Amino acid sequence: MMYEERIILLHPSQGDIFASDRPPLGLCYIASSLKANGFTNVVGIDLLNTSLPDLYEEAKNADIIGISVTSRLFPSTILLAKELKKVNPNVIIVLGGPHASLNPEECARPDQIDYVIMGEGEESFPRLLELIFTNKSPKDKIIRCKWIKDLDSLPFPDFSIFPTKEYSRMKLFTISNLMTGRSCPNNCTNCQPALRNIAGPYRKRSVANVIEEIRFMKKTYNSYLFNFADSNFTLLKDWVIDFCEEVKKENIRWGCSGCVKDIDYEMLKAMKDSGCLLLSLGVESGSQRVLDDVLKKRFKIEHAINVIRWSNDLKLRTWCFFMIGIPGETKEEMQQTVDLALSIGTNMVQFSVGVPQPDIEWTRTSIEKKWLIPHKLEDIEKPGHYPYNLFGDDPWLGRTSLFQTDRWGPDFIEVMKQRIVNTFEKEGWFRNRGGFAFRDLKKEAQTSFKETFGSEIMLFLNNRDMKHLGIASKLFTEKIKGYT
Fold first, then answer.
1. How confident is the model at residue 375 (pLDDT cuts 50, 70, 90)?
2. What is the pTM of this model?
């Protein structure tokens, strides 16, 4: 059966300092599933590149508006839903996404919300719309899904519902998002159990299915640069090795995120040989006690150092993520984290301040120990909301702590942030866009990219003239395109 009703899939990222510069992958999966079930009139709107007046104009003729919402954006999304109902009182608004899975009752409470979908929406959303459009609307506002067992059965995400040219204007080259698996079986306290409640049990697509999607993306969107958006791409070594063997034939370049404990030299070499340009790693802390007892990460710092050393030997660029303000760590352990980040040998370092995301273990522990500062959902990761904040609206440095433990509080986190900035800048690292990320440009210029745009980076380091970074970026784009 074919349906002509107008469906808007909305990504409410306006004002979101952490918004992606790529089309939202989850909504693109929903779009392809809707079209596969006969819903042909599907439009994607991302408030990152669409104004509110334009959204309201589109909403006047909509029958359904599906909104993917995070915990951080939930309060503003409800205000937006109220405005959408004013514009079109008859429109049916359906909430999905992370916050809908974690707190469905809260999401269903406002009168402006008609339905809430928990979990994956590729099967449950089309089924809900079939019932609505055949006058069999469910009485219960909360729709509880079954997890999709076979990810290969899903149609490839449809990026065409979003204006992809708008995203490509944000950068000199376009990176396409692709996901090879969902969820993660690890029990790290800064993710779980929230991640499993949002994404379900861990499942992986077949290598053949992923390669088929890569070919589809190359043909349909002229994609040549990919980011694998899995929580943990490197979890299954045999899968990774098989994938690398097959993807060599596709002549693409790609990056991914991995878990330190799963990686060895053989895997890294296979990744590098098959076109991997960047590996992101959550090293998180320079204290083995924090990794073992607080975060439950299950790897040794010595192994993290080895992974970076092997990557450097292979000329595979790495980006390491670290945290400060972890509830349960000491001031001395935060300094150990800074020391490790500076010495580990990675190309890029990203710091973040620990925040009390809903339904994760360290938030629960902080509540039990009375470490949690009273706050609203919109305060999570919100810059400048706390009087100790020294860095204003900067999206990373401006994030302030909401923990007051028996060893430190938000004021000390501000001291640590300033110490980190001073330390890395003194050592000659370049701070990305004023944020809480640092790049060892000298290392990149002298090793990975010496043969192409390294000289331009060295000129920038010598005289700080930004035009050299612009030239380097253009040369990088030409180099990548030369692979296709």
1. confident
2. 0.89
